[in-house]
Design brief:
The chain is α/β, with parallel strands linked by helices. It has one domain: 3-Layer(aba) Sandwich (Rossmann fold).
Length: about 130
């Protein structure tokens, strides 16, 4: 049973989200050998990366366990409502599929550490 970690972001028409997600997935693959990382976006463009299409493609490949990491800062409407709705829809259509929605990145204490570091750099001009 293959499992996948799916990095999910909002998306944009210019492709910057796609480029950033691909970079993140490559870095994660290097740092977490043996895990498979894929990317998706919440907005339906570019269409092949739309989360619903990506989930259905993974099912066609025989994937039955998917961990979705929303690359969002907070528990906004997308994380609370829109993403679970899409996941539930795809799981309902594909019995035996297990999709686990993880917490958004902003709730991780490491994000606070990063924010403190950035604030110090801004306020004091140091790298601490």
């Amino acid at each position: 049973m293959e499992s996948v970690v799916l990095l999910l972001a909002h998306g944009d028409r210019e492709g910057e989200t796609e480029r950033s997600l691909l970079f993140m997935a490559e870095q994660l693959h290097t740092r977490c050998p043996g895990k498979r990382f894929e990317i998706a976006v919440l907005l339906p463009f570019p269409e092949p990366l739309y989360i619903e299409h990506v989930l259905q493609d993974l099912v066609k490949q025989g994937v039955v366990n998917i961990d979705v990491i929303p690359c969002f800062l907070f528990q906004g409407a997308h994380v609370r409502r829109d993403i679970p709705f899409i996941i539930d829809k795809v799981c309902h259509q594909n019995k035996g599929l297990h999709v686990h929605l993880q917490e958004p990145l902003g709730l991780d204490p490491l994000m606070l550490d990063l924010l403190v570091r950035r604030a110090r750099m801004t306020i004091h001009g140091d790298n601490g």
